[in-house]
Structures are given as structure tokens and as C-alpha cells.
Design a protein that fits this description.
Blueprint: E1 11-15, H1 25-28, H2 33-40, H3 42-46, E2 52-62, E3 65-68, H4 97-109, E4 114-117, H5 124-133, E5 141-147, H6 152-162, E6 170-176, H7 190-206, H8 209-217, H9 225-228, H10 236-243, E7 250-259, E8 263-270
Parallel strand pairs: 1-6, 2-5, 2-6, 3-4
Antiparallel strand pairs: 1-8, 7-8
Family: Belongs to the DODA-type extradiol aromatic ring-opening dioxygenase family.
Cofactor: Zn(2+)
Keywords: Dioxygenase, Metal-binding, Oxidoreductase, Zinc
């Protein structure tokens, strides 16, 4: 399929990794090599540089869906216990205040509550994966919060409201983790993470796109669901990515079965790629 400037961009749900991992290669070795390679391949799949990124991060929740509107967002070092130099890193992508207003209007047009935050900075759910996707930070980025309560149906509806942005050259990325239980991490979590990941792949890739939203709305009934996600903030960005590409094919674009010693984890694209 040949990309044109008018073709619709896909959406993504990515596993964003832990803390400031792109700046810790000396300390972590090759632990993130496969995730980094998958993230770095996204521009090739897309086939062109988007006008902007809309990033829905697991690390921001508000009473209403809130859009970042700073023209130059600062950094939020929302992690602890990492080396001192990781509290000085920068990802200096420009913001996009006019796009923020467009996003707010789309959300309100769907009957959902929306707000603007002109001060909010980039959290690590945004800047860490983006350091691999667009390391030169040249693509403007706007973050969008989750809504407190983490209702999956409401976040699917949010994705539907945002779908027109795909025809406006805005790349929608949901940033979380397909498995997020920090109390059960490593080799002992292999079986439960695999059970949930198998279900997730069946729901969003193998299953019919028309049934995907219903499957995800009932995600808590999936095998090992509440072990994989004791609190679902790292899964809910998936709902936004799916809602914005509800009837389109799902593709698993990243998969490991021994991440951090034993976790089964995945990332997904929704909609066709320009290249592969």
C-alpha cells in the first residue's frame, strides 16, 4: 500500500517500559533492545512524518479528559530511585496549542467532559517511548489524560471522538503496558502474563474488529486480568487506540515472552501501515 499525504494514519497501543529506560542503557544492557527496536520501527510503518502526536499516557488522570496545551511542555520526572542523571534528561518536542483546542472540541462534541491544562509537562509514559520513536523530538506532541474512574467504555468512546484526527495527519498513541503488576514481576509472572497476553491478542488481533470493543469493555473477566492489571490505568490507553480505529484490523507489532526475565508483553497497531 502506497502512502499519500491524505491517507489515514493507524493508531497504536505501546508498552512504554519502566521509567527513563532510554537513558539507562549502561545500567540495563540489552533489557529494552527489542522494545526499542519495535518503537523505532514505527516511523517506517507509518511511511511519513505525522503533523503531530496525540499521546494518551497511563501516567495522567483527571476528573475530565484534559488536554495539554503548553507550547513548550516541561519535563515531569514521575519516577523514583533511578540514577541522578535521569532527572536531568530532556525530550524537547514542541507542544501544539491549536491542536489541543481541536482535541477539546472533538471530545466535547461527543458529549464527554474536557478541559485544557496550559502548564502540564511530558511524563515518562510519553517522553521515554518517544525518545525511541522520534529521537530528535522534531514532531509536535500533545498529551491527553485518562479520566478518573477508568471506565473502559468511556475511553472507547473517547477514541471514537478522536478518530477524525487520523485524517488530519495526527498519530494517536496509547501508552501503557500490556502487563502491569509491579508486585508480581519477573519469571514467576510468566504464566499469568502469558494467559492475559494470549487473551489480549485473541481479542484485538485474532477476533473480528466488530466484537473488539465489547471484548475490551469486559476485559476484567479475561484470564488473569486482575493479576495482570490490579489497577487498570496501564491498560486503558488501549481502549482509546481501539476506539479510534474500531472497525480496522489489529496487528501485534511487538512481543516478548521473557521480558525482564519472564514477562509476556505486547504492543499493537490498529489500521493499515504504509510499509509492512
Amino acid at each position: 500500500m502506497t502512502s499519500t499525504t491524505n491517507s489515514r494514519l493507524p493508531t497504536y497501543f505501546i508498552s512504554h517500559g519502566g521509567g527513563p529506560w532510554p537513558w539507562m542503557k549502561k545500567e540495563m544492557g540489552n533489557a529494552y533492545a527489542r522494545l526499542e527496536a519495535a518503537l523505532a520501527d514505527m516511523p517506517r510503518q507509518i511511511g511519513r512524518k505525522p503533523r503531530a502526536i496525540l499521546m494518551v499516557s497511563a501516567h495522567w488522570e483527571e476528573p475530565a479528559f484534559t488536554v495539554q496545551a503548553s507550547p513548550k511542555p516541561p519535563m515531569i520526572y514521575d519516577y523514583g530511585g533511578f540514577p541522578a542523571h535521569t532527572y536531568q534528561v530532556h525530550y524537547d518536542a514542541p507542544g501544539a496549542p491549536e491542536l489541543a483546542l481541536r482535541i477539546k472540541a472533538l471530545i466535547e462534541g461527543a458529549g464527554l467532559p474536557a478541559s485544557i491544562d496550559a502548564q502540564r509537562g511530558y511524563d515518562h509514559g510519553a517522553f521515554s517511548p518517544m525518545a525511541a520513536i522520534y529521537p530528535d523530538a522534531e514532531v509536535p506532541m500533545v498529551q491527553l489524560s485518562l479520566r478518573r474512574g477508568l471506565d473502559p467504555k468511556e475511553h472507547l468512546a473517547l477514541g471514537r471522538a478522536l478518530a477524525p484526527l487520523r485524517d488530519e495527519d495526527v498519530l494517536i498513541i496509547g501508552s501503557g503496558l500490556s502487563y502491569h503488576n509491579l508486585r508480581n514481576f519477573g519469571p514467576q509472572a510468566h504464566d499469568v502474563s502469558k494467559a492475559f497476553d494470549d487473551w489480549l491478542d485473541e481479542a484485538v488481533v485474532q477476533g473480528a474488529p466488530g466484537s473488539r470493543a465489547q471484548e475490551l469493555a469486559n476485559w476484567a473477566a479475561a484470564p488473569a486480568a486482575r493479576v495482570a492489571h490490579p489497577r487498570e490505568e496501564h491498560l486503558i490507553p488501549l481502549m482509546v487506540a481501539v476506539g479510534a480505529a474500531e472497525s480496522e484490523e489489529g496487528t501485534r507489532v511487538y512481543h516478548e515472552d521473557a521480558f525482564m526475565g519472564g514477562l509476556v508483553v505486547s504492543s499493537f497497531r490498529f489500521g493499515a501501515a504504509a510499509n509492512g
